[in-house]
Structure formats: C-alpha cells, structure tokens
C-alpha cells in the first residue's frame, strides 16, 4: 500500500482526533475561566445605559455577572463607603470627605453624559414651552403657581396657556440629579442660593416627592399640570414634553446632543479626580443643565478576579459601550476623556 493511500485513509481519523482535541481544549479553557459576580448601586440617571451595557457585556463574557440597582447617588456612595457593593454610580462624583471614608480608596470614572430636562404635563398644548431662567426658578420656589401666568406667556406669544395649577414634582431620595439641578439654580438665582441652596437632598419650597428618575417620570405622566426634572433619556423614552430653556446668553435652547456637547466642551476634567461641573455654561449654543455621570470603583479589591472584571468592563464600556450611549440618548465620551478614563482605570488593583 502506498504512503499516499495510507494518508488518505488516515485523514478522517486524524481530523476526528483534531476536532476531539479542540473540543477538549475549549472545555478546559471554559473550566479555567473563573466565574465572577460584581454588585453595584447608585444613580438612576445612567441606569438605562448601565442595564444595556451589563446585558451586552454578559453576552460577550458569560462568566461575568454584573448586577446594578438604581437607588440614587447618595445610597450608592454610602454603600461604597460601607463596603457592601463592589462599585457605585453617582451624578456628582464623590467628595474628598466621602472618598476619605472609603477604606480601599476610590477611583472616579466619568462614563457618559447627558442633560437634565424640565418636563411638564399640559394636555393638548401644541408647541414646546419656552421657559426663562427666572420663570423656572420661580416655579420651583413656588412663586409662579399657574400655567397661564403672564411671566410664562411673555416667552410664549400666541400660545393658549391653560388656567391650570402647576404641580411641582421633585425627588425624595438623595439624588445626583437634584444636586446638578440645584447647583444650576443657585448659580442663576441669588434668591434660590440664599433660601434653598444646592445638594443631593434639599428642603423643597413646594411640590410632590417621588423616588428616582423613574418615580418622577411616572408622577409627571399621571398628574395634569405637573412640572418636574428628569434625566433626558427618561423623558424621551416616556414621551414627556420638555421645555426649551433660556441659557446664560439669553438664547432658548432645546436639549439635543449638539447643545449638550457644546456644554461639555467647557468642562475640563482635572487629571487627579476626573470630577468637574459647569453650573451655568457661557457658550451661546449650550443647553444649561448638563453633567457627566461617574462610576466609582475601589482602588484596591480583595478579590483579584473582581478587580480584573471591573477593569475589563470599564475598558469595554468606554470603547464599544459608547455606541449604545449615543443610541439611548446619552452623550458619548470624547476621545480625550476616554483616554483619561482608561489611564485612571489602571489604578484599579488587587
């Protein structure tokens, strides 16, 4: 029998052996990949995006289980301090005082950005409402109480404003969204700054309380005459009417990806913390209420698998994940910020 014939007869057997070895190798590789589970909690602002990221990432990395609960920025930070979560999320980053309480130190990473919109429920209003800086501040102060107020009408000529009481809806939980809004109100109104001030939890002059962006959105939908603040994606997904707001230049600006990007151009993230805000942007085309939202991780993890999982997830989220960011209505990070985040994420270790 020729060597050539012997090879031809052996080929199927060799192929079968090769396939068998390949399957065995894959099985061994699969067993060698350690399953890891990480748990996080915090801001409702980025929750729709985080849930999308987590689902997409798990499809690609089935050995990594990530769970995120939308409980508000304050709860997320407190749980990070207590060590009961593996990561947190906050729309205001973390203060030096809070960071000092985290025994394993903390790394703050901006992951996306978006606007905070002022939404309302006025049945049968055919056009988008324009609100001046003084008007929306006075509504939150309880000084303007009806939708047909002359001060509202000035910016909306020809609009038949209804004789309908304004029902202010605000957050009841400690919220980064509240902090960003009230920082803006304090920046544009000395009266607001002196009487109410800024913070994740404040004493609201008027209004009905609801929990999370989810709760405020639902309350606005259910209440004729409602006026409240939510993250842009919640308003868009739930088809809420949102106001066109007057900015520092006196221009009335809609919350669009372009107007939000103009605002972010003015935000310079310091290399040591990557946390910065702009309460009242100067750009004539800027939408006035915009923020990044931050993922807060430990600098040192007790479990090396968790440390690596967090680093890998962050790297994926600021590259591939940014495609979902834009599709859902958030603002993808600039390339400069992506580089800053990747560099900061290298600090995460075991």
From TrEMBL:
CDD domains the UniProt entry points to: PBP2_PstS (cd13565)
GO molecular function: phosphate ion binding
Annotated InterPro entries: ABC_phos-bd_PstS, PBP_domain, Phosphate-bind_PstS
Domain of life (superkingdom): Bacteria
An annotated GO cellular component: ATP-binding cassette (ABC) transporter complex
SUPFAM superfamilies reported for this sequence: Periplasmic binding protein-like II
Keyword Transport: yes
Keyword Protease applies: no
Signal peptide stretch: 1-27
GO biological process terms, semicolon-separated: phosphate ion transmembrane transport
Alphabetical UniProt keywords: Phosphate transport, Signal, Transport
Domain (PBP) ranges: 35-319
Annotated family: Belongs to the PstS family.
Name of the protein this chain belongs to: Phosphate-binding protein
């Amino acid at each position: 029998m020729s060597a050539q014939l012997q090879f031809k007869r052996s080929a199927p057997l060799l192929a079968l052996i090769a396939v068998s070895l390949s399957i065995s190798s894959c099985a061994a590789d699969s067993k060698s990949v350690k399953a890891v589970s990480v748990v996080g909690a915090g801001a409702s602002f980025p929750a729709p995006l985080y849930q999308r990221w987590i689902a997409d990432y798990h499809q690609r990395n089935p050995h990594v289980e990530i769970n995120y609960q939308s409980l508000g920025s304050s709860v997320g930070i407190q749980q990070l301090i207590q060590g009961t979560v593996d990561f947190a999320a906050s729309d205001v980053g973390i203060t030096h005082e809070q960071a000092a309480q985290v025994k394993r130190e903390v790394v703050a990473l901006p992951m996306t950005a978006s606007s905070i919109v002022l939404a309302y429920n006025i049945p049968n209003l055919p056009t988008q409402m324009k609100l001046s800086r003084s008007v929306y501040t006075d509504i939150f102060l309880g000084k303007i109480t009806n939708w047909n107020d002359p001060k509202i009408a000035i910016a909306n000529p020809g609009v038949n404003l209804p004789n309908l009481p304004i029902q202010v809806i605000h957050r009841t939980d400690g919220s980064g969204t509240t902090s960003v809004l009230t920082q803006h109100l304090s920046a544009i109104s000395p009266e607001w700054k002196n009487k109410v001030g800024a913070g994740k939890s404040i004493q609201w002059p008027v209004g009905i309380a609801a929990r999370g962006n989810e709760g405020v959105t639902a309350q606005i939908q259910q209440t004729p005459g409602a006026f409240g603040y939510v993250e842009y994606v919640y308003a868009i997904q739930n088809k809420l009417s949102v106001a066109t707001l007057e900015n520092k230049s006196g221009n009335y600006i809609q919350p669009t990806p372009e107007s939000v990007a103009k605002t972010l151009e003015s935000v310079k993230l310091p290399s040591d913390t990557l946390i910065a805000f702009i309460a009242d942007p100067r750009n004539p085309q800027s939408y006035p209420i915009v923020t990044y939202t931050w993922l807060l991780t430990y600098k040192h993890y007790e479990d090396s698998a968790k440390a690596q999982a967090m680093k890998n997830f962050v790297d994926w989220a600021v590259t591939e994940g940014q495609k979902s960011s834009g599709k859902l209505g958030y603002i993808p990070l600039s390339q400069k910020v992506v580089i800053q985040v990747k560099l900061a994420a290298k600090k995460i270790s075991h």
